[in-house]
Amino acid sequence: MDAVTTKRLVLTGPESSGKSALSEHLAHVLGIPLALEYARFYLEEHGPHYDYDLLLTIARGHLDYQRTKAPPDAPLAVLDTDLINFKVWSEVAFGRFHPELQLALAEESNHLYLLCYPDLPWESDPLREHPHARLMLYERHKAEIERLHRPYEIIRGIGEERYRNAEAAAKRLFSN
Length: 176
Prior knowledge:
The protein has 176 residues and is of the alpha/beta class. It is built from 7 helices and 5 strands; from the N terminus they run βαβααβααβαβα. 51% of the residues lie in helices and 13% in strands. A 5-stranded parallel sheet has the order 2-3-1-4-5, with helices on both faces. β4 (111-116), α6 and β5 form a beta-alpha-beta unit. α1 (19-30) packs across α7. The radius of gyration is 15 Å and the shape is globular.
């Protein structure tokens, strides 16, 4: 199958906005493959310190991991973040985004987005860096999705309401 016939539902947005929990929930409810956030696995194993070059290495690993967990021939899959997250991360941390990744981002044309609004309480975590910049990060994710003209819906709500909103939005995006 090609990018036109496959769809990838991407959970994106700022830190501590429920992406991972929603990703797992949606993959389970919809019965489709899930690729969790590779950067978290990498940084938990190797430590929280990174630079511009290491971010490129992590992003390459992320792409390989996603191809393994959400095979290209799977018609539908859920992704906990994609290269938009790496772009925002890299630009905030280093003021630039690697050209190799920019090209790869343009190729992710089968991605549909659930953009998580930062209306959940902040949960501290050694890998999270911006407790007071979540709205700014949200706006950067939104601007990039819109720049790429990708379909998206904003997910808001607390608890079960957030899960119901995400389920309904996922079904709408997959049906278009």
